[in-house]
Amino acid sequence: MVNIVLPVDFGDKTEQLIEGAVKFAKQVNGRIFLIHVAPSDIGFAIGDMGFQYFPEVEENEIREELVQLNKIQQRILAHDVDCEHILKQGIAKDIILEHAHEKKADFIVMGSHGRSGIYDVFVGSLTKGITKDSNIPVLVLPIHE
């Protein structure tokens, strides 16, 4: 079985990315390891008293993101593609690459924005960083308006 790591950010193009990853997984007899990386500073805010940490904000955000991951996992499983998910906090590029190595990924599937000819905007800075630093093949799916 082919192991595919699929990072998601819950943006407006996530559905297209999932559709492309599911199609690819079916073609290669793959299973999807869905990952979302939340920033480490979710519960922090700055105000008159400087930086403040609100653990309830972080807990609520993480809980909501886990609900979204569960829904995506169920949609992928409904297409008869094996899938598991995880949510981690930290620097997205580092966490994704680490997770891909842990899962012995054969591919990482990412999306491009398709908004401009400028490489960083076209591909996306996270996708660019992953493709630059990964020794695992990265499949970049075109995600358009």
Description of the structure:
The structure is a single chain. The chain has 145 residues and is of the alpha/beta class. It has one domain (2-142): Rossmann fold, CATH 3.40.50. It is 44% helix and 28% strand. It contains five helices and seven strands, in the order βαβββαβαβααβ. The chain has helices at 14-28, 55-78, 92-102, 119-123, 125-133, and strands spanning 2-7, 30-38, 44-47, 50-53, 83-89, 107-112, 138-142. The strands form two sheets. The protein has a five-stranded parallel beta sheet, sandwiched between helices. The model is unreliable at 115-123 (pLDDT under 50).
What's a quick, concise take on this entry?
By secondary structure, this protein is an alpha/beta fold.
Shape summary = globular
The level of helicity is 40-55%
Classification by helices and strands: alpha/beta
Instruction: Name the CATH class.
Output: Alpha Beta
Distance between the termini: 32 Å
**Can you tell me the CATH topology?**
Rossmann fold
Q: What fraction of residues sit in β-strands? A: 25-35%
- Average predicted confidence as pLDDT: 86
Biggest beta sheet summary: 5 strands, parallel
CATH superfamily: HUPs
Radius of gyration: 16 Å
* Shape-level CATH architecture: 3-Layer(aba) Sandwich
Major beta sheet, strand line-up: 5-2-1-6-7
Count of domain modules: 1
The total strand number stands at 7
Order of helices and strands: EHEEEHEHEHHE
Pick out its properties.
cytoplasm, 7 strands, 44% helix, Rossmann fold, single chain, 5 helices, 145 residues, five-stranded parallel beta sheet, globular, two-stranded antiparallel sheet, alpha/beta
